[in-house]
Design a protein that fits this description.
416 residues, alpha/beta, Lyase, Ornithine Decarboxylase, Chain A, domain 1, TIM Barrel, 2 domains, nine-stranded mixed β-sheet, 29% helix, binds pyridoxal-5'-phosphate
Length: 416
């Protein structure tokens, strides 16, 4: 359920015609629906209302300050994977005691920053990281709250680039090694063992891998408790999938049933790190048609958005639905929607059936609210596009379109 719908022939975001935003702000441009983000957050969080829980929104899925602020004001925390994301979360007013820090490669300065801030916990992903955190916490004369990220070796049955809980992935540590790490951590004076964590992948469309992963980490919790190591937080990560095309991902309520059954009661606080399911269908990328071009075997619609604005189709071969911003009854033809970037991988859609759209007409790439703008680059020296947030009949630019000056910010001539 989201708030991008046609009224008559016009695509609206909430009560604002998308075309009106594009006229005022220009293209390409991301448009987010505040009501959709709120709705998705609420449905997710309410699915767990019977238990003590904290929803730490995955900041990497959409790190715009306006998005973080909106979620933070509803009670969300943040799952961060860098010092930069910590900075953003704090700037957006998310309290540090609602922030968890994941990621396999935390630098010393990032660890120090997070300790200084007083985050809820570090999700530790290796033995060397455990030593680092202990060392830095000792220097700072405080105790670092930690969880170990367990790699439960469960197949999430999703795209290989977004699987994270298989033995061969770089994330987390295997169950047996986790046991060793916990024993070591329990003996380290500047660590406070507070939790356990896993995150097995993204865009999961079945609940079974979640259930299996949680059963495996709860089994480990049992073994830890038998040794006198107790955990307060069970962080089950994110990964719940959304509808891009014809997937049928589980409802948050079904997901909740699976997780709660696998956790099996107890007084612990559950932590979730959803990203995509909160913001994925709360945003679209709006582009304008530049040219139509007939190749030898294909019809190309060349638009002003490109892989530097939205890389999911190129990187994951991901399908994203494309809709004309103004519906037309012109005949539909099979097209590739491509951008101006000089790479053959620069496409937003391949072999899509779309009504013929002429130069100057607008289209919307749907389901672009997660892993859209945060993955944008300036490749081909294309300034990154604007982002707009809509609520009801109002809209505001929440990130300015970059300028040519922004492109060279910080650069200087070599004086050699
Ligand atoms: C990316 C990521 C998430 C969010 O995944 P979604 O599929 O967007 O819900 C959560 N936790 C960690 C550790 C991640 O790396």
């Amino acid at each position: 359920m989201n708030y991008f719908n046609y009224q008559g022939n016009e695509l609206y975001c909430e009560d604002v015609p998308v075309a009106r935003i594009a006229e005022e702000v220009g293209t390409p441009l991301y448009v987010y629906s505040a009501s959709t983000i709120e709705r998705h957050y609420r449905v997710f969080s309410e699915a767990f209302s019977e238990v003590d829980h904290l929803v730490c929104f995955s900041a990497k899925s959409n790190s715009n300050l306006a998005v973080l602020k909106l979620l933070g004001s509803m009670g969300a925390g943040a799952d961060i994977v860098s010092g930069g994301e910590l900075y953003r979360a704090l700037q957006a007013g998310i309290p540090p005691d609602r922030i968890v820090f994941s990621g396999v490669g935390k630098r010393d300065d990032e660890i120090r920053y997070a300790l200084d801030t007083g985050i809820l916990m570090f999700n530790i992903e290796s033995s060397e990281e455990l030593q680092s955190v202990q060392g830095i916490a000792r220097e700072m004369d405080l105790k670092a709250p930690i969880a170990v990220r367990v790699n439960p070796d469960v197949d999430p049955k999703t795209h290989p680039y977004i699987s994270t809980g298989l033995e061969k992935n770089k994330f987390g540590v295997p169950v047996t090694e986790a046991l060793t790490l916990y024993r070591q951590a329990a003996d380290m004076p500047n660590l406070d063992v507070v939790g356990i964590d896993c995150h097995i992948g993204s865009q999961l469309t079945s609940v079974h891998p979640f259930g299996e992963a949680v059963r495996r980490i709860m089994d480990l919790v049992g073994r830890l408790e038998a040794e006198g190591i107790s955990v307060r937080y069970v962080d089950v990560g994110g990964g719940l999938g959304i509808v891009y095309n014809n997937e049928s991902p589980p409802l948050p309520s079904t997901y909740a049933e699976t997780i709660l059954e696998a956790v099996g009661g107890g007084e612990r606080t559950l932590i979730f790190e959803p990203g995509r399911v909160i913001v994925g269908n709360a945003g679209v990328l709006v582009a304008r048609v530049l040219y139509n071009k007939k190749g030898a075997t294909k019809n190309f619609v060349i638009v002003d958005a490109a892989m530097n604005d939205l890389i999911r189709p190129s990187l994951y071969d991901a399908y994203q639905e494309i809709k004309p911003v103004t519906k037309t009854d012109r005949e539909a033809i099979v097209v590739d929607v491509v951008g101006p970037v000089c790479e053959s991988a620069d496409f937003l859609a391949r072999d899509h059936l779309l009504p013929r759209l002429g130069s100057g007409e607008l289209l919307a790439v749907m389901s672009a609210g997660a892993y859209g703008f945060p993955m944008a680059s300036q490749y081909n020296s294309r300034p990154r596009c604007a982002e707009v947030m809509v609520r009801d009949s109002r809209f505001e630019v929440v990130r300015d379109r970059e300028t040519y000056q922004d492109l060279i910010r910080g650069e200087r001539f070599f004086e050699g």
